[in-house]
Amino acid sequence: MSDIVFLSGFMCDSHLWDRVAPGLEADFRLHFGDLTRDRTFEGMAERVLAAAPRTFSLVGFSMGGFVAREIALKAPERVERLALLNTSARGDDPEQARRKAGLARAAETRGFRGLSRHSILSSLHPDRRGDEEIVASIREMADRIGREGFVNQIGVVRQDGHGELSRITCPALVVWCRQDELRSLEEAQELADGIPGAELRIVENCGHMLPLEAPGETVSLLRNWLSSSVAA
What we know:
8 helices; 6 strands; Rossmann fold; alpha/beta; 232 residues; 43% helix; 2 domains
């Protein structure tokens, strides 16, 4: 039985994968990295590697995809396959970096009051914005992570990673969702074009929060990817 390490997105914890895990846990050992305790992607990657099995397949969602790329570059002999879901290799522009630094300072001085309903709804397909179960799940993950995790994650300055993509040599899958308003098809295509041999898959009728909105499709994509990689 092989191992899969899952990396969640911004202000999401392992519960992001609660709807996906039942479709995989009979055939794979599932592990969930902690991305809440460090203030750099390098530090997050080192923490994940310290707790991970000797070799594993790696699934990074959104912000977790940035850390997943760092891990694949840092320990290529350990990463058997790489799946990047709803993520990017683009860096922050100066205005984004200033805004995020300001949010980090505000949370440190005034506290963290949770994610706004607007920010949660913008991550979902328009037809799912009335799904209070999904909305509550996202809000609860952020509340569990809290102020320290928010400050750590929002404070990371994201550097452009396109120049490093060609160094990723393991089988790679890139997934983008048609109604993702946070990440564009162009960003997904840049990843797929930059990683040698990477495969791009598009999920229809889904917003940014793929593991919550379309868990069955997520399981199917990952199973097919793992099977085809093994066969290759």
